[in-house]
Design a protein that fits this description.
By secondary structure, the protein is mainly β. It has no helices and five strands.
């Protein structure tokens, strides 16, 4: 949703959803790490739910302040199995399972100065966030 084009204050609000399904089925053969040789099956399902909003307020014809926030939740489910090729000293089979979730808020603030119809300057400060989770590559150790 957003404000009308002719509104005195511009705003935007919304929801977002992201889904990721990762699956890897691989056979590793290495002459360097013989104990890691075998078959790997990895499945990672992830979802992100978010709500966001922003507003731009013109203080004067030349000066505008803007701000925005986003609240999100990340969830992942992880399932991985390793089956050795039988090399001596190898773990014959190993299974990992887990669930993970993370809640976080990001935002920004901005000030904009319009010099004329063709030129403007702005300064912005924002915080980002890199959520954690499970790696796509696992050695099941």
């Amino acid at each position: 949703m957003n404000s009308r084009e002719d509104a005195s204050i511009d705003w935007v609000a919304g929801l977002s959803y992201f889904r990721s399904d990762f699956y890897q089925d691989r056979t590793q053969t290495s002459t360097i790490t013989l104990t890691l040789n075998g078959t790997y099956d990895t499945d990672i399902d992830g979802e992100t739910f978010a709500i966001f909003g922003g507003v731009s307020i013109p203080v004067t014809y030349r000066l505008t302040f803007s701000a925005g926030l986003r609240a999100a939740r990340d969830e992942q489910r992880f399932d991985s199995t390793f089956v050795s090729n039988g090399f001596p000293g190898s773990v014959p089979e190993y299974t990992q399972r887990g669930e993970w979730e993370d809640d976080y808020i990001t935002g920004r603030a901005l000030v904009d100065w319009r010099w004329n119809e063709n030129w403007n300057s702005y300064a912005s400060i924002a915080n980002g966030y890199a959520s954690g989770g499970y790696e796509c590559y696992t050695v099941n150790a």
